[in-house]
Each structure stands twice: as structure tokens, then as C-alpha cells.
Amino acid sequence: LAFALAELVDNSLSATSRNTGIRSIQIKLLFDDSQGKPAVAVLDNGRGMTSKQLNNWAVYRLSKFIRQDDFESDHSGYVRPLPVPRSLNSDISYFGVGGKQAVFFVGQSARMISKPAESQDVHELVLSKEDF
């Protein structure tokens, strides 16, 4: 569970890495049965994702370094950071399966809601472990 939560936080660290103001990352554990099944929610004030970027996230083994038409795809000069013990270096999901493995380790479905910073549109992706 700790590695799954670390992966989700790592995704938020990547999403907020270019923030010019405060980086906000919240982890909420929801156990209120009146709201449905228990859930883990990770919220951040990062740059958001378009519907295409959300769909790309849902493709197994599609690394953020090889996605087409994605602002994260140009990593030709990428140098993997040296490992730092007991810290996140935003290199956890290098092979593109980290986020999906994390959410499906924690639960049976994922719901992602995102609003790209430069857009008025809000995008949502709902994906079950069975469909994935």
C-alpha cells in the first residue's frame, strides 16, 4: 500500500512540478459508507490533463516518455536521477505502469477528474480493473 500511495503522490509531484505558486497535494482516505464504497482520493493543483492525455494514461505500458502529442513526450535529453534513499525522485513510473498498478492495487476502479490549466473544460475518466 505504501508503494501504491507513493506512486500516486509521485504523479502529483510531476503534475505540480511546473507550478509557479504553491504546490498542493492532498491524500484523502474516505470511509463514509453514505458516500459509497471506501476510496482513496489524491488531489493536486497541477497542470491537468486533456481527454486525450487521460486516455493515454489508461493505456497499459505506455510510458509518459513515448506518448504522442503529449507535453511530456519530449524527454530525449532525459537522464535518470541518481537514487536517493527514502525519497521520491519523480522517477517511479518510468515504464508507464506505475499509476495504473497503484490504483488497481488499492481498489477495483479509478475515477480521474482533470481540468487543464489553459482550458475551461473538465475531463473525467472512469476505468474498472476488469475493463482495464
Widest β-sheet, arrangement of strands:
1-2
Q: What's the total count of β strands?
A: 4
Helix content: 10-25%
- How would a crystallographer describe the biggest sheet? 2 strands, antiparallel
> What is the end-to-end distance?
20 Å
What's the oligomerization state?
single chain
Q: What portion of the residues fall into strands of 2 or more residues? A: 15-25%
What do the pLDDT scores average to?
78
Unreliable stretches (pLDDT < 50, length at least 5) are 71-78
- Total of domains: 1
Under the CATH scheme, the architecture is 2-Layer Sandwich
Cα radius of gyration in angstroms: 15 Å
CATH-assigned fold name: Heat Shock Protein 90
SSE succession: HEEHHEE
* Overall geometry: globular
Q: Determine and state the CATH class.
A: Alpha Beta
Feature tags:
two-stranded antiparallel ribbon; 23% helix; alpha+beta; 132 residues; Heat Shock Protein 90; 3 helices
Task: Describe what this molecule looks like in 3D.
By secondary structure, the protein is an alpha+beta fold. It has one domain: Heat Shock Protein 90, CATH 3.30.565. 23% of the residues lie in helices and 18% in strands. The chain has three helices and four strands. The protein has a two-stranded antiparallel sheet with strand order 1-2. Strands 3-4 form a two-stranded antiparallel ribbon. A hairpin with an 8-residue loop joins strand 1 (25-30) and strand 2 (39-44). Helix 1 (2-15) packs across helix 3 (98-106). The longest helix has 14 residues, at 2-15. It is globular and about 35 Å long. The two termini are 20 Å apart. The model is unreliable at 71-78 (pLDDT under 50). This is SMHD1 protein. It comes from Syrrhaptes paradoxus (Pallas's sandgrouse). It holds the Pfam family HATPase_c_3.
